[in-house]
Amino acid sequence: RKSCNAVINAMPALELETQLPDASPALGGRHQQTKVIATVGKASKSKEMINELWQRGADLFRIPMCYSSYDDLRQASQHIRATELQHKTTIGILMDLQGPKLRIGQFEQGSVNLNDGDIFTLDLNEQPGDKTRVNFPYAKVFPMIAPGTILPLGGGRVTAKVISSSLESTSLQVIRGGTLNTNDRVNVPRVSLPYRALTEQDVKDIEFGLEMGVDWIALSCVRTKEDVEEAKRIVGMEAFIMAKIETEVDPDELTEIIRAADAVMVARGDLGVDTNVESVPPMQKNIIAKCKKMGTPVVVSTQMLDSMISSPTPTRAEASDVANAIYDGADALMLSAETSSGEYPLEALDVMEDIIKAVETSPEYRTMMESDLKRPEPNEGYAVVTAARQIARDLNAKAIVCFSSYGRIPRQVSRERTTQPVLTMSEDVRTARMLNLVWGVCPVHVPSLSYEKFSFDEVLEKAKETAKEHGLAKEGDHIVVVASKPGEEEVAGSNIMQIVKL
User: What is the pLDDT of residue 18?
Assistant: First the structure.
């Protein structure tokens, strides 16, 4: 098991029959810094499969609301929290909102195969579709689709050319045939759709997700920082917001989105459809670089090991794609259909873990992490963190230990891409679960340490005890402790550091 996250006397968000245990197991052994998100679906929704995926390396589980019912979300959340209980750990849950994406309705048989040259219609008729038509309930969009426009359907599996549009339908001629499934997406490239990033259905989903105790909420089709701020007003302090970049965004606005969001996802599938395939690699690198500089966690998603949906081994190109995202410094990589509906979910996760391990143990990786480190704007918090990083290196410290209520301090340390694990103690279980996304951070839930009541001496003792308990350090080793001064707000970041010899 790669992560060193754990729980000490923690309560799960959902009501389970028993409480989480009062002690946690040793967590030494394999540790990797890049995190993995596994998507839950028909191939992975059982309690046994979720447990196995976690044991093989999944740090968070994604539940896509475009394909999940509330019963699906409830069941998956219960299984994930049960795995927490069994392994005395914390696990993040990411609820991925549908957003204002244009999706077709239902097919009578669940899917249809379209051939080159077929005529196919999108309309307002709510009856199940067939090879000739399907429901498309977006009356405002029809007048915006001009004849001659090329529409990618189903994420690009089918491509069609617009023949004509009216107020109630759009007729298409299939250019490249393929399979269309119920609820597949329709992309209208380079058209600003008349819909907000947060739909009425998204708001309902958020309310239910918060009841289920989700930790992250992925917001689709983010174009402005106001989209993120609106979601944050609804969510409050109950969860964290991940902004999905799925279309080309103005560079200045992208900076503001990264600053406003708690994390960012490079949603490459939709990026490649809404822009051009050749534009995705430079956009991915640009977004990762900006996020790293600003200390915002960044996720790379979509088609990372796509061939493993139906094959037990990936292509060499896919392995290189995964490796490049790690070399670029992504906090987390996401498996989508590979684990949700693929034939080899466990094998896909094993392959991703193996690639992460190979990259992170290569000399080139550490060289790239060092050379690519960009200094943030000078401030007290980052000055302390930068000093902690250098001291930990000079003393060959075994860990940098943070105490954090809101996750700000470990995120600052993570930004420095340290060679040591960032062991983070938090009295807030939501923060501990959230931090499973962040590069190099090993979250531990310690409710016995109240941020408002602790003394720094207590924190130092707990840091030594926790580092030893989880197999990260032993007697005679050094650790570096970073925290906020007792009684002061963590929002400004760390302002105190101490070297501790066990």
Answer: 34
What residues are paired with 423 via a beta bridge?
401, 442
Q: Name the β-bridge partners of 179.
A: 113
114 pLDDT band, cuts 50/70/90, is very high
DSSP assignments along 397-448, one per residue? -SEEEEE-SSSHHHHHHHHT--SS-EEEEES-HHHHHHGGGSTTEEEEE-TT
d(CA 92, CA 355): 22
- Which helix H or strand E contains 233, and what residues bound it? helix 225-235
- The span from the CA of 370 to the CA of 20, in Å, is 39
Q: What residues have CB less than 8 Å from 51, skipping those under 6 apart?
A: 79, 82, 83, 86
Strands 422-426 and 35-39: unpaired
pTM of the model: 0.86
Residue 293: CB atoms within 10 Å: 17
What value does the mean pLDDT of the chain take? Answer: 88
13: pLDDT confidence band, cut at 50, 70 and 90? very low
pLDDT for the residue numbered 489? 52
Bridge-based pairing of strands 158-165 and 150-153 is: antiparallel
Q: Please give the structure tokens belonging to residue 165.
A: 């549009």
